[in-house]
Queue: 3 jobs
Job 1
Amino acid sequence: MFKNTRMLAEAGIMVGLAMALWYLNIGQLPQGGSISLQMLPLLVFALRWGAGPGVVVGVAYGFLHSLQDMFMVHPLQYLLDYPIAFGLIGLAGLVKNVRINRVVSVLLAVAILVGGILVFHYTMTSTAEVKAQVTQLEEQLAVATPDEASELGEELKDLKSKAQLFPVGGYVVLASSILAFLAILYGSWRRTYTTPVELGVLLGGAGRFVGHLLSGYIFFGQYAPEGMNPWVYSLIYNFLVVAPSTLLALAVILIVWPPLEKAANVNSD
């Protein structure tokens, strides 16, 4: 898998750098997850060396990262949220030595934008329903017995936090889809380097998102407000972490990749 000493050394450096970058995180969420640049070194490694080594390094990082920020309710949830989710970041390497047709890139960009708009609309609709549930619970709490009041109070607190979380999640989904749309179009029409890194980064981010999405649906779906599809709840929650982290990494990679690719080509000659 690791073809030479240089690849192995770079793998160790990238894992260590990813662990260090995680400490510069923001936006800790109640069931785990935060926004950081920890994906950046893993994406760069996968883009440089390909999907196979990228997945292996991502899995290794996932195990090590769990020692930094473990949130575990079940062994399968642990695997999905750590080695599997971070291992799938290595899928970014699938674009190595691939040339993407411009029409395909544009269609993909449009699909991402439309999907983001649809999820945003559903999120706003769900937020209105959650706020209606909050109003109903407040009315029940006003006439509740002391024993009932304690339970209703906890439920009301949880719903109020979700009523604040979901609009933020909806706007993150919308903004992320717009930025991804623009990044792919930029790469399709203005790219001055050979590797379609913007597609690779989005593919790696999508891989990580799938791992967290499955974990959220299977193990945290019960936290979804009444009437909300657990898939949508998991999508909104995990988008709040993965989308900003992926787009932050994309912004940096679009800046640093041209000199990196040029240096790699020089060294290979």
Job 2
Amino acid sequence: MSPPSPLIEALQQAVGAAHVLTEGDLSAYEHDWRRRARGRALAVVRPASAEQVAAVVRACVAHGATIVPQGGNTGLAVGSVPDETGTQVLLSLRRMDKVRAVDAANLTITVEAGCILQNLQGAAEAAGYLFPLSLAAEGSCTIGGNLATNAGGTQVVRYGNARELCLGLEVVTAQGEVWSGLTGLRKDNTGYDLRDLYIGSEGTLGIITAATLKLYPRPAAKLTAWAAVPSMQAAVDLLGLAHARLGAGLTGFEVMGQFALSLVDKHYPQLRVPLFKESPWCVLLENSDHESEAHARALFEQLLETALESGCVTDAVVAENLTQAKGLWHIRESIPLAQAEEGLNIKHDISIPVSRIPAFVEETDALLAREIPGVRLVDFGHLGDGNLHYNVQAPEHGDAKAFLRDEEDRINTLVFDAVARHEGSISAEHGIGSLKAAKLPHYKSAVALGLMRRLKQALDPQGVMNPGRVLAAETTAIGSQPL
């Protein structure tokens, strides 16, 4: 065996030889979650502290290597795996998983970036509080990745995205310095908001190593309802009613198309999907009440009664207990899994002003059906905050691989152009990664892109941090790697 290179030696000194992986099966780090890409890392490095992360960054800068930060590797935009050159250092934050502190009086919790979201939720619950960020991958995604992509999930309608839940960050810069910004302050008007700059930057400006996050009182009751609605416009009307009747108690509002639910029924029949066979759309609502279950149920029943009378709901069921509620949510969360079981597909994570979603869906459904006969549309998502997962399945019995190869770029353009016509965004919560980096210049203004590039150049002048992600490729100082 040949001796390690000077860079590998420096990395071993920084984190210990046992935590610098260069041989064996590294596929868990090199494959993205959707299996859209497989890269090859020079080394997988697993630091245990911000100081070790800083030492790794300094070593990479000194030896001309670029860094790809990675949390739970559950991203959907190919933003956290190395490229195929075998020259990039994959920096895994999974060892940095501690809950550092809970400040009950300040309603905050401070955790390291590698803390799995579900463990963070559990720590908050054990302390008697709620951390409301919730998404299907919460058993494996990490809070660092959630912040790096500004994750959304099912409770954005009440609590906001990850950005709104974060008060402070600890970040290792592209120069290998540690910025300690773990303040729990809700008011701090002392200059530029560095926290918000790093959130959503997908590891291209620096590496998030810890965060101070907001906690909330746990609700006295949480109820879930499933409603059949005759159209997307009826779903929007129901959302307006829910806002009016439930106020801040409305914590979840999901919409699911009939074909999306038919896939769950087909591949997971044991889940017993309700009401979908006779309705083009179904809605899942959640009401969190700080008074009592009886109060929550009364509000829900009044809401649904009004909705039935007005015609925006044709039928509805309210979960009688926690088990039933979890079952309904499990159906919603199983849509992506059922779609994967059905075969390869093209995913779109878009946002549209809620008022324009019915027109967008009607127009774009018709456009794709006309352009690609037999195409199947898997529409679902977080209607409460205007975020749709507008996914496209290959025609039944067709060659799905050929469909992706031949049609993906055209379908993306058709969908993204429609999003732009309706004043939306081509990425709502999954980020840009490398999948959408080439598309972004077509849908982001030249002024905005220019500002983003200048920020990148100012904070990461050597192009060390996650090159080729978010911003389309440009050459940089280190080895002409993509910026």
Job 3
Amino acid sequence: MSKIKAARWFGPRDVRLVEEPAPQPGPHDALIRVESVGVCGSDIHYYLEGRIGHAALTGPTILGHEYAGVVVAVGEKADPSLVGKRVAVEPGIPCLACRWCMSGHYNVCERMFFPGGPGCDGAMRELMTVDARFCFPVSATLSAAVSAMIEPAAVAVHTIELAALRPGDTVFIVGLGPIGLLTAQVARTGGASRIFGVDLLPGRVEFALEKGWVDAAWVAKPGGPDGGARETLSWLAEQTGGPGADACVDATNRPEGIWIAVRGCRPAGRCVLTGISGNDDDLVPVGFARRRELTLKWCRRFLNNYPGTIALIETGRLDVASLITHTFTLDEAPRAFELVAAYADGVLKASVDMP
């Protein structure tokens, strides 16, 4: 295949199908026939604004980092046994040589190649090359679309890891989009006794309750000087008997999510900030956090979480398939981005599939 099709971003709300030369694998690479790409919330920041805070796209870019496909070839120094296998790909490729990589924190590598971000073409194309060491074979029972969902599921697994969840803990999740819903499920597998959630969209609250992934949930009503946050916290206080939850998670794309998650913590509680608002300088209620001696952690994607996440999905302990509400072809990729950006038609996860 000398030419491939790709969906390339050219500017805000401007994604076009183009034809480009097929990539060739380097010595350590796997060449992947991409089968499925999920549209992520961070993709939508780039789609609408061309940036996430200071991270700005500098030119036409192929978006997409949640992906899976079949390995069709490998470079001379890559594992030949991968050929012919469907793999879930951990998208961020660190340098593996800097002090952060060498100390075990490769997810904060400052020389990270992250597909679909500034200077790095992503996976919404027919063929993709990637360091073969970040390709994880999956069971034949997993579809390509489910395999692509391993990426956001790994974010949820790392979030609960950072929350230091203990059996019997209560958990409050702010934002019931795909990451929030996956985090609720992981919290349940980790022994949470009660899980509470909040979202602005009634359909997402209803879905979470129907699935049994949360025990109680609240539809936030935006408005007023605090965006409805105090009503949400009053509801949480009723649910928990006053003190707040043991562990809280911000899984939103709004600055208010941080404020609500921190203030939802009981004294000496833990809060993990996983959502991406798109800003560099969101406000954190520092005085409240200090008085309650909270532990605050920020989640940077995942860290050695792919094998465990795959095991949770393959054994049926984590349901990712239910979150895939819409599917599109590569030719229809612009529609997929627009649907997710508009929160239209009850969308949770839109999948762009290339069978």
